[in-house]
Amino acid sequence: MNCNVVWLLVDFAKVLVPATVASELAQHRPDLLSRTEVAWQHCGAKLPRDPRLAALCQLFSLHGGEQDALAQLEGDPRPIFLTDDGAARQVAERMGFKVHGSIGIIVRAIRRRQLTPAEVIQVLSKIPIRSSLYIKTALLQDVITKITVEFD
């Protein structure tokens, strides 16, 4: 998730951060977890209990952080898995979890009245320039076009 828009997570009651994910963030985005407006909830490592989830994690070669994060969601009645990783998204969706990536969180900000459609378009337009997040140009343009049409 782009650090400039991480504040969009403020309306989540909690954002679970397994130790493996916290370690990765400390290495690559050390300022992220210091954002106190987000309700970060640190939790320990946890292996998937559901054999189907464990098998999918292995099949899709998910890293430890992704496996821990998915395992934290087991048993949660309405979990939302936050990821920009395609394989992790597929596993989460197959397990019935709702999934949002950076684009989804940014676009969601319109409905939550955190950003205007014009501000969302501006943020999305800057992703290829200001972020390490790789998004296909056609997908990004399609999202921007849909926002423009819907909110024009």
Structural summary, described in words:
With 152 residues, the protein is mainly alpha-helical. It has two domains: 98 residues, 3-Layer(aba) Sandwich (Rossmann fold), CATH 3.40.50; 39 residues, no CATH class. Strands 1-2 form a two-stranded parallel sheet. The protein has a two-stranded parallel sheet with strand order 3-4. The radius of gyration is 16 Å and the shape is globular. The mean pLDDT is 90.
Tally of distinct domains? 2
Rg, please?
Answer: 16 Å
Oligomer: single chain
Shape: globular
Reported by name, the CATH topology of the largest domain is Rossmann fold
Helix content: 40-55%
- End-to-end CA span: 27 Å
Strand arrangement within the widest β-sheet reads: 1-2
Number of helices: 7
Q: What sequence of helices (H) and strands (E) makes up the elements?
A: EHEHHEHEHHH
CATH architecture of the largest domain: 3-Layer(aba) Sandwich
Quote the average pLDDT: 90
Please describe the structure with a list of short key phrases separated by commas or semicolons.
4 strands, Rossmann fold, 2 domains, 51% helix, 7 helices, two-stranded parallel ribbon, globular, mainly alpha, 152 residues, single chain
